Amino acid sequence: MKRTLYACVATLLLGMVSLVCAADATGKWVAEMPGRGGNAMKMTFTFKVEGSTLTGTVSGRNGDTPIENGKIDGNTITFEVTRSFNGNTFTTKYSGKVGEDNKLSLSWATPNGQTREATATREQ
Fold it and tell me: What is the rounded CA–CA span in Å between residue 47 and residue 50?
């Protein structure tokens, strides 16, 4: 009986520690990456975190697009962005890790299946 109680308490404490250790992704993050013709393209990610839910927008050359299905677990974030182009709708799935140095490593797959990566810096 005591083992079960200790196991429950340990599980509860580990769960609380993971909530306390969750990275703070709230704010504005800017990434610059190569675009067409060698021109740099800037993307801005604006995040708001409430518990394990991540909301916000992704801003680029086509304006702001809301984040969907955003989650944060420790320092890992995942979210989706749905866009329309020439009558076609596509969803991009992003995943990333928030670093202690105000850097955010992101990766995502483009509609044609290529994987892209970028490092975003938090704006102060």
Answer: 10
Q: How much is the pTM?
A: 0.77
As given in the structure block, the two tokens for residue 4 are 């079960």
Q: Which domains does the chain have, with CATH numbers?
A: 23-122 (2.40.128.20)
Question: What are the CA-CA distances from residue 44 to residues 7, 8, 16, 30, 31 (Å)?
Answer: 44, 42, 31, 5, 6
Percent of the chain with pLDDT over 70: 82
pLDDT tens, position by position, 34-74: 777 778 889 999 999 999 999 999 998 778 999 999 999 99
Mean pLDDT of the chain: 83
Q: Quick one: CA torsion of 112, 117, 35, 87, rounded to 10 degrees?
A: 40
